[in-house]
Design brief:
281 residues, Rossmann fold, Four Helix Bundle (Hemerythrin (Met), subunit A), 10 helices
Length: 281
């Protein structure tokens, strides 16, 4: 306790530290179809003390939200690009059902999109916040904190594109200082990667630009978590080629770069930092 004196000798002020309010523990609905991103988000939410329930697409998110009105979720974390029903459609459906009821559940878009206008599309669909992948743990916690307690609209936490390979400490920070979580997610990626590459090959074989865009986007969403510019930029280029509909050269480009993602993540798994503690605060 400090007691600084004012200019008048007979007047004193007593300043007491106000205890910091503990972070709010939330019941969160997580809609994410990508296994690596889903496990990462689950682990981060658990570390923050939240309770989470996960679903794989927008239809499942909408159905679960409708079934649990009596024990409403505090917030929904909604991936934008998902099979069956995407996050934008699911958010719009939820907002339609809320009309006339006065209810409003905060929805945060979690998206690997980094295109001009994507933020506006999310907000137009009725989402309250926007955060880009790969997820940054501290920013992930911040956007949840500012969106729910204060009811803040349009909380935006942009993540800059990956420009250079991170140091060991920077890579570990993406996983909240948890080397075991990094190894676990790298293992999941190594299991999922062959299936993702097969989907890209099938789309290229069928000359299906839409299927190629979806498959490349899914792979980009996974590899982006490991912050390695080469594989990430390669799969982003493939996604952009698919989006433009110009598939000439895409097959050759894929053949020359597809093996790099898997080998790079394998290297991360084998050489990941091993600090004395699993978490750095």
């Amino acid at each position: 306790m400090a007691e600084p004196h004012a200019a008048h000798k007979d007047v004193s002020l007593t300043i007491r530290a106000v205890p910091e309010e503990p972070p709010q523990k939330l019941n969160i609905l997580l809609a994410e179809d990508n296994a690596v991103n889903r496990v990462l988000a689950q682990k981060l939410l658990q570390k923050q003390g939240h309770t989470e329930t996960s679903v794989n697409n927008g239809i499942e998110a909408l159905q679960l939200w409708e079934e649990t009105q009596s024990r409403q979720f505090d917030i929904i974390l909604m991936d934008v690009q998902m099979p069956e029903m995407d996050g934008l459609q699911a958010a719009a459906r939820i907002r339609e059902r809320e009309r006339g009821t006065g209810a409003h559940i905060p929805i945060i878009a979690v998206t690997a999109h980094a295109m001009k206008g994507d933020r506006e599309r999310c907000l137009t669909a009725g989402m309250d916040g926007y955060i880009a992948k790969p997820i940054n743990p501290s920013e992930f916690a911040k956007v949840i904190r500012v969106t729910v307690p204060a009811g803040t609209k349009h909380a935006v936490v942009p993540v800059d594109p990956i420009l250079k390979a991170p140091s060991d400490a920077e890579l570990l920070a993406r996983f909240d200082g948890d080397s075991e979580l990094l190894k676990e997610l790298a293992g999941i990626f190594l299991t999922e990667c062959p299936r993702m590459l097969d989907q890209i090959r099938a789309a290229l074989g069928a000359t299906d630009s839409k299927a190629l865009e979806r498959a490349a986007h899914a792979l980009k969403g996974s590899v982006g978590n490991f912050a390695m510019p080469g594989p990430w930029e390669s799969v982003q280029r493939l996604e952009l080629l698919a989006k433009s509909g110009q598939l000439s050269g895409a097959r050759k480009f894929f053949a020359s770069s597809s093996s790099k993602s898997r080998s790079s993540i394998k290297s991360s798994q084998d050489t990941s930092p091993n600090p004395h503690t699993n978490r750095s605060d």
